[in-house]
Structure formats: structure tokens, C-alpha cells
Amino acid sequence: MKQLHHKSPTHAPSPAHAPASKTSKPARPGPRTWVGYLLLEQRLLFVLLGALIATSFFLLRPYIFSLSPSNVTDRSPIFSFAARSSASRVPAGFRPPPRRVVVTGGAGFVGSHLVDRLLEQGDSVIVVDNFFTGRKENVAHHLRNPRFELLRHDVVEPILLEVDRIYHLACPASPVHYKYNPIKTIKTNVMGTLNMLGLAKRIGARFLLTSTSEVYGDPLEHPQKETYWGHVNPIGVRSCYDEGKRTAETLTMDYHRGGGVAVRIARIFNTYGPRMCLDDGRVVSNFVAQALRRQPMTVYGDGKQTRSFQYVSDLVAGLMALMESDHIGPFNLGNPGEFTMLELAEVVKQTIDPMSTIEFKPNTADDPHMRKPDITKAKQLLGWEPKVSLKEGLPLMVTDFRQRILDE
């Protein structure tokens, strides 16, 4: 007999076996208002404090950055290099950093005096020189200066530096030196100038080329103005220097017109002073060295050729004034005083030894008969003119030459 099985009726589980109910989460607050956000964690206090600081800065800014009470409205940049003369009156925390300057040929005669002045005014200076005519002794007194650096380098090869100003002086400047290796001389004038102009363009530096009165050649105009184009032998023994500098001027102006480089050109006339090479073939150094050595002073030709002579400190002042001016150039930098070779020999005799004698020799090729600068442009636009007369400056050079000759 089959036994019938009936499903048990479904019963609700006992409370003891019922699953635990989930813990209910607290209700999330509604969206925060911006007022609530500011009040949270004292944010409002910090917002008000920041606004107070910003407002105070802008209200007090004219008083902080003004250079003098009468110049409150000056809006020139705080770090403008043109205002360096007033830097000492700017609060210590806002003084501009020193300029970074490179001087090619900075171990030479003119270059070393320029380096002295740049360091004296607080700039940082890098000297680049291959020591063909420059001497380490000319800058040795700066070697422990943390703002001075000396690099042995030939500008015919490119170099990468980070500077604000480039004074390009590198080139043999005396007949003895530039005739010794004329190919090297013109390469320095052309390739060296190209490299330094390229550097100026890449880094946005201001560039000054030291050119020469030799670009006028044997002039048909006297005195020589910057507008005079010159009378130069392009294939003569001096053309490596004369035409080399004319080409350097061309490159400089082309980089200005085509590349926007801020350039300056200084046409330097005869310069003398301490640290000149003893035997560089230039007339003042020749006469002084020969007189000190008790040798006859050599006059080439009839001695009636004329030259102008400026002391090196005057030239350096002119170079620095031109660099910081707004004028492109070229500018004649020289002493408009004029001496014949015989007159110069007489001044040297009076300074060193009245018993000195003169020896005449044939004149050299392409030697200019007249040389005298018209410096009207420099006087009017730069406020510059030479201060040191030949009778004042020559004894300073003689003292330096006498010591060096005694040390030979």
C-alpha cells in the first residue's frame, strides 16, 4: 500500500534563524554651498589674508621700486642694465644681477684695460684669447676674482657662451703681427667675426666690433669722417687687416639688418699706454722701447706722416659709452690732435732721453700719409672725447716699458 507523502507547509523561519539585517548608512547631506566651503577649515581666513597681501603689494609698489623720491613715476624695468648707475640706491633685495660680458682678445693691450673697467663696475667677465699677441700677465691680477674667467680659445672656432654683452676685439692689430701670418689675420677678421655674431644672434646679446682707422686706407679726405668710404689697396701687404676689418664691418651690419642683432662699431685710431707689446712695430711703442734701450729711434720715410694718439683709458671709456648707447655706428674713437712722426719723436726724447737720436729708413708699403679722426659724431651722440694729452699719458707708458725692459 502506497504511502502518500504530503509536502510540509512552508513556514517562515524562526527569528533565531533569520538573517541579520544590513546596518543602515547615515543620510548624505545635500550639495555643499560655496559659503559652506569657505567656512570649512578656516578657508575664508586664508582667502582674505591673500587678498590683503596682494593689495598691499600693488599699493606700495611705486615706493618699493622707485629709485628716488622725484622719480616715482619711472616705469623702466627693474632689471634694466641701462639704469645700473642708480643700482646703489635700489633696495638690496631688488638690485639687478651683474652683467655677463665676454671680451675676445681680452688678454691683449686694449682688451685687458677694458676688462679692468668692466670688473671695476661690477660685471662678470669672460676673456677669450688664443694668446697670439695677448699675454696672461695682462690679466693675471684678476685670476682670483670669482667674477673673472679666462679661456684659451681661438675665435676662428665656434664657442657657446651665455652672456649679455660681446666685445669683439680679437685680431692682431700691429703691422708686425698681422703681416706675420696674413691668412690667419683675415680668417680671424672674417670667420672670428662670423662666429661671434652668430653667438650674439643665438643668445640675444649686444655686440660691439672694434674696427680700425685702417678702413680708410691712405685717405683722400682729411680729417676722416665716418661717412668716408676710404682709399684702400685690396691686394696689398696690409689688406689682410685693412680689408679684413672692412669685411668684418660688412658682416656686422648685415647681421643687424638681416638678423636683428644689436650691433655697435668702433673705428679705433692710434692708441698707446701700458701693456703694449714692446716690439709690435707701432710707432709709439717703437720709439719708447728704442729710447729706453739707448737705440736710435726709427723713422720711416721723411717723418712728415701724421697720426693722432689717444691714451688707452680714453679709448676704453669710448668703447663702453658706445656699447651702452642706442646708436649703431660706426663711430670714430681717437684723439683729434695731430703729430708728425718727427714731432712724436721729439716728445719721446723730452720724456725719456734728450740725447736720443733718430735713424731714417725707407717707408713701408701702403703706409697712410695722413691720419686724423673727426670725432664730432662721438662728441654729440655719445658725449665722449679724449681727456688725456700725449704729454700726460706718455710718462705712464714709459714707466711700464722701463720696468718690463729691465726684467728682460
- The mean pLDDT is 85
CATH class of the domain at 100-273 and 310-336 and 372-387: Alpha Beta
Number of helical segments?
Answer: 11
Please report the total strand number as a whole number: 13
* Separation of the first and last Cα atoms: 147 Å
Q: Give the low-confidence spans.
A: 1-23, 64-90
Q: Biggest sheet, strands in spatial order?
A: 3-2-1-4-5-6-11
Family: Belongs to the NAD(P)-dependent epimerase/dehydratase family. UDP-glucuronic acid decarboxylase subfamily.
EC number: 4.1.1.35
Pathway: Nucleotide-sugar biosynthesis; UDP-alpha-D-xylose biosynthesis; UDP-alpha-D-xylose from UDP-alpha-D-glucuronate: step 1/1
Main location: Golgi
Question: What do you see in this structure?
Answer:
The protein is an alpha/beta fold and 408 residues long. The chain has a domain at 100-273 and 310-336 and 372-387: Rossmann fold, CATH 3.40.50.720. The chain has eleven helices and 13 strands. Helix 3 links the parallel strand 1 and strand 2 (124-129). The longest helix has 23 residues, at 43-65. It is elongated.
Question: Keywords for this structure?
Answer:
single chain, 408 residues, alpha/beta, Rossmann fold, seven-stranded parallel beta sheet, two-stranded parallel sheet, 11 helices, disordered N terminus, lyase, golgi apparatus
SSE map:
Elements (H helix, E strand, L loop, with lengths): L33 H6 L3 H23 L34 E5 L4 H12 L3 E6 L18 E5 L12 E4 L6 H6 L1 H22 L2 E7 L26 H21 L3 E6 L2 E2 L10 H10 L4 E4 L5 E2 L2 E2 H13 L6 E3 L5 E2 H11 L6 E4 L14 H6 L8 H17 L2
Parallel strand pairs: 1-2, 1-4, 2-3, 4-5, 5-6, 6-11, 7-10, 8-13
Antiparallel strand pairs: 9-12
Helix pairs in contact: 3-8, 5-6, 7-9
GO biological process, one term: UDP-D-xylose biosynthetic process
Pathway: Nucleotide-sugar biosynthesis; UDP-alpha-D-xylose biosynthesis; UDP-alpha-D-xylose from UDP-alpha-D-glucuronate: step 1/1
Keywords: Decarboxylase, Golgi apparatus, Lyase, Membrane, NAD, Transmembrane, Transmembrane helix
